[in-house]
Amino acid sequence: MTTPPTSVERVSEDRRARSVGIGRAHAKAILLGEHAVVYGTAALALPIPQLTATASAGRSSPAADAQGELSFTMTGSASREVVTRASDGLRRLTAAFKERMGVKDTTHLDVILDGAIPPGRGLGSSAAHSRAIVLALADLFGLELAESTAFDLVQAAENETHGRASGVDTKAVCAAGPLRFQAGEAREVSIGFDALFIVADSGTAGSTKEAVDLLRAGFAREAGAQDRFLGRAAELVAEAEQALAEGEQEEFGARLTGYHELMRAAGLSTDRIDTMVGAALRAGSLGAKITGGGLGGCVLAMTQPDQAREVTRQLHEAGAVQTWVVPLRRLVSRAL
User: Is residue 10 part of a domain?
Assistant: First the structure.
């Protein structure tokens, strides 16, 4: 029995065949705007460059147990079992890439995905994986891939995965710095202060589809609920963007917490997430919230460097299974 490789970088040259394409993407976190962004409201998103997805694509002879024209191995995240079969979604993504780019090559492909982004945590793992694979295929076939084409291919995969995807994940998993997304358009945002964002994994996967269905049911059940949710979401995002640009850290943090309250009132949080948010705030965080679709996933807490250690400790005591620290200043420098 062959042991699957644990990293793209460790795959031997003979396994990669003679020609190999490489593609990379990274995680993201939504600062504010979850769910409302699907209805056309703006959202603010934060790239998480230290959580990456790296794909390699190579031509190879099919193994004895290979199915069709594609072999696949995915490794990397401790919260995910090793996957050695290509999903229907990956096969559709590969077929869509070939059709869009006019690739006639029918040689067997061997795709290896090394993904450090935990799935089901609202961190954009599916979009990052799709983008990394699309870029790897373009690299393999020596094709120039327009950003608009990459977006279309990844977004189509996201719509299959999540139902009606807004596009914010597709944009954010390749962004160099924080961005504002609305109705398919993304732009960088002005940053007027420095801070650390602590992303804390609750250890429980969320479900975007279930959260979307739950929210829609609430909208249908109560007259005016949708308008109130979207109106409050738009207000919080606009105020947060202004505070971010003007250097008002406490105001920005308050909007983060305010968005958590909006999500919680809609039934999209969990007891553990609420406990973690409360722990972060008591430890000195300027603002904290659930990030992503909800019903599990991660907490995002904003803090100053001198409070980061205590906030992180309290998040772990409240149930976090792992945390990552994203320095805002480093992202801004990276985007310049």
Answer: no
Answer yes or no: is pLDDT of 322 > 80.
yes
Handedness of CA 282, 288, 292, 295 (dihedral sign): positive
DSSP line for 113-167: EEE-SPTTSSS-HHHHHHHHHHHHHHHHTT----HHHHHHHHHHHHHHHHSS--S
Q: Is 56 inside any structural domain?
A: yes
Assess if residue 260 is contained within a domain. Answer: yes
- Full-model pTM: 0.89
- For residue 42, what is the domain's CATH number? 3.30.230.10
Residues 47, 115, single domain; the answer is: yes
Half-sphere exposure of residue 261: CA atoms within 13 angstroms, side-chain side:
9
Mean pLDDT to the nearest integer, 186-199: 96
**Number of domains the chain is built from:** 2
Stretch 108-121: mean pLDDT = 93
Per-residue pLDDT tens for 121-157?
999 999 999 999 999 999 999 999 999 999 999 999 9
d(CA 57, CA 122): 26
DSSP H or E stretch at residue 236:
helix 225-246
Q: Are residues 151 and 169 in the same domain?
A: yes
What is the structure's pLDDT at 11?
Answer: 39
Residue 98 belongs to domain spanning:
20-182
**Within this chain, do residues 200 and 163 fall inside the same structural domain, yes or no?**
no
pLDDT at 83 over 90: no
Judged against a pLDDT cut of 60, whether residue 67 lies above it is answered with no
C-alpha–C-alpha distance, residues 294 and 59, integer Å: 39
Q: Mean pLDDT, to the nearest integer, of 212-234? A: 97
What does DSSP assign to residue 310?
H
| CA 198 to centroid of chain Cα atoms | 15
How far is residue 187 CA from its own chain's centroid?
17
